[in-house]
């Protein structure tokens, strides 16, 4: 089996090329280059070294995966005839997808690959910008930069920023986190005689000329906490500090039980913001709900019971497990099948036994929501009306019983029968796929807005509510209805 020897051309010119790599290239009769757009190549050509480059493959495809696949296939085909040297910019094991594909085939025993060394651009780049890698850094791919991969408290080196389009995509991603005027450095041909370092505001990243396959972006770590407020890790640090030795006395006193009412309050305030379709209010209230989750997780960590990582792991595992149509091979046609699969998987996950069916349903929920969940659970076991008509008849039956207790003027029985009326109405809502909590929230909002209109008209008149009859106030209410105030 012939050998594919992979070497790196380094980040700069011939002066930086290791002697061993130079000899392998010089002595190879079959030299292949990922690209000939590299300072070393013109010196090699000047010495009469011949080669085949894959630059034309880049022009042929509009997806990098297809480029890498064709390069790998060409190298394999060539290696069937003779051993060869494949030279790439930098170091073979740094940001070289095709090399990793070749190594995978080597592990499978399909080809024979040797890594012949090379010099990474990383050392030269840190020297170029005058930074210390010991402070921590991330090496990321500019062609596949993801927002959630970025840690702002570390230095970033983003490779493959070789043209304006990639630079623009990188800029837009970074500006989701960093200020528009955050200073970054574009480094080209680091460590060579052609080295170029440009320090610019982030917003100007895609306006710089002369980008090439030797260009990388350096982003310094954020030092002030205020600049990294958008990162989850910063929020965790803040919550930990609040409950730490030098933190807030109130936060340190809280327990899971003392925080229950705040979680409920914040949840209802979020529901109200959603109902109002107020985006800014939603953002604020979601933050307040998240704060409660973070405090509970920090209390769990402080007490040595559980950590936020365990909470996230449990949630992530459940989401993957219960979505086999997304993360597995199960096929679904519509959302109804998704819900059916969810319930089936959920039931398999629950331990079997003689525990009452409703014992852990809707624990801690308000009565309206609990009634809805109880009915849903009972219906799944077959304890349900065959159609909405049965649920409607139950409503009329309960109304008559409530009217009877009103006539009897029995406070206890009136309360009990009124509860039965509500329970029966919730059953009707369920048949029509109406979530009663949401429906009542909509009505509450509508009442608030229409009554506010009535109040506004009263104030405009210079009178007080006592100066108006109910009929006159009702006229204002009807005006609100005619104006479609919802």
What topology does this entry show?
Elements: E1 3-8, H1 19-27, E2 31-33, H2 39-46, E3 52-53, H3 55-60, H4 64-79, E4 84-88, H5 97-107, E5 112-115, H6 121-129, E6 137-141, E7 155-159, H7 164-174, E8 183-188, E9 196-201, E10 215-219, H8 232-242, H9 249-253, H10 260-276, H11 279-302, H12 308-321, H13 324-327, H14 335-349, H15 367-380, H16 388-408, H17 411-431, H18 436-461, H19 470-482
Parallel strand pairs: 1-4, 1-5, 2-3, 2-4, 6-7
Antiparallel strand pairs: 7-10, 8-9, 8-10
Overall description:
- Helix content is 52%, strand content 10%.
- A hairpin with a 7-residue loop joins strand 8 (183-188) and strand 9.
- By secondary structure, it is of the alpha/beta class.
- Helix 4 (64-79) crosses helix 5 (97-107) and helix 15 (367-380) packs across helix 17.
Structural key phrases:
486 residues, alpha/beta, 5-stranded parallel β-sheet, 5-stranded mixed β-sheet, 10 strands, 52% helix, elongated
Explain briefly what this protein structure is:
The chain has 486 residues and is α/β, with parallel strands linked by helices. Helix content is 52%, strand content 10%.
Assign an overall shape: elongated
Roughly what percent helix?
40-55%
Structural class per helix/strand content? Answer: alpha/beta
Largest sheet: 5 strands, parallel
Strand order in the sheet with the most strands: 3-2-4-1-5
The whole-number mean of residue pLDDT values reads 90
């Amino acid at each position: 089996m012939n050998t594919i020897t992979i070497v790196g051309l380094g980040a700069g010119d011939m002066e930086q090329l290791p002697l061993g790599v130079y000899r392998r290239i010089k002595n190879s009769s079959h030299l292949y280059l990922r690209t000939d757009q590299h300072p070393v190549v013109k010196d090699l050509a000047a010495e009469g070294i011949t080669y085949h480059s894959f630059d034309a493959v880049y022009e042929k495809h509009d997806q990098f995966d297809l480029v890498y696949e064709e390069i790998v296939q060409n190298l394999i085909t060539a290696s069937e005839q003779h051993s060869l040297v494949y030279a790439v910019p930098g170091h073979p094991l740094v940001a070289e997808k095709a090399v990793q594909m070749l190594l995978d085939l080597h592990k499978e025993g399909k080809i024979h690959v040797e890594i012949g060394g090379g010099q990474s651009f990383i050392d030269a780049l840190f020297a170029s910008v005058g930074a210390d890698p010991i402070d921590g850094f991330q090496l990321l791919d500019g062609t596949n930069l993801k927002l959630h991969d970025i840690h702002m408290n570390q230095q970033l080196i983003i490779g493959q920023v070789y043209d304006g389009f990639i630079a623009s995509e990188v800029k837009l991603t970074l500006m989701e986190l960093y200020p528009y005027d955050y200073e970054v450095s574009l480094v080209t041909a680091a460590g060579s005689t052609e080295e170029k370092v440009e320090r610019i505001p982030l917003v100007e990243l895609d306006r710089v000329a002369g980008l090439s396959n030797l260009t990388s972006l350096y982003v310094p770590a954020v030092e002030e906490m205020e600049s990294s407020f958008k990162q989850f890790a910063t929020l965790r640090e803040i919550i930990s500090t609040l409950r730490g030795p030098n933190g807030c006395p109130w936060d340190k006193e809280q327990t899971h039980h003392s925080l229950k009412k705040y979680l409920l309050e914040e949840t209802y305030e979020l529901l109200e913001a959603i109902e109002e379709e107020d985006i800014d209010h939603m953002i604020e209230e979601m933050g307040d709900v998240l704060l409660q989750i973070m405090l509970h997780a920090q209390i769990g960590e402080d007490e040595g019971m559980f950590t936020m990582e365990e909470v996230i792991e449990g949630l992530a595992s459940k989401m993957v497990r219960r979505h086999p149509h997304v993360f597995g091979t199960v096929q679904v046609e519509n959302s109804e099948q998704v819900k059916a699969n969810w319930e089936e998987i959920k039931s398999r996950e629950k331990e079997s036994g003689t525990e009452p069916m409703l014992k852990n349903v809707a624990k801690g929920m308000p009565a309206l929501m609990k009634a809805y969940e109880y009915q849903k659970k009972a219906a799944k076991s077959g304890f349900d009306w065959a159609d909405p008509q049965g649920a409607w008849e139950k409503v009329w039956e309960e109304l008559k019983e409530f009217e009877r207790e009103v006539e009897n003027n029995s406070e206890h029985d009136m309360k009990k029968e009124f509860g039965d009326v509500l329970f029966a109405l919730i059953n009707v809502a369920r048949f029509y796929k109406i979530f009663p909590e949401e429906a009542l929230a909509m009505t509450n909002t509508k009442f608030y807005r229409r009554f506010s209109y009535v109040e506004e008209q009263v104030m405009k008149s210079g009178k007080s509510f006592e100066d108006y009859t109910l009929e006159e106030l009702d006229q204002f209410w009807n005006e609100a209805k005619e104006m479609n105030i919802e």
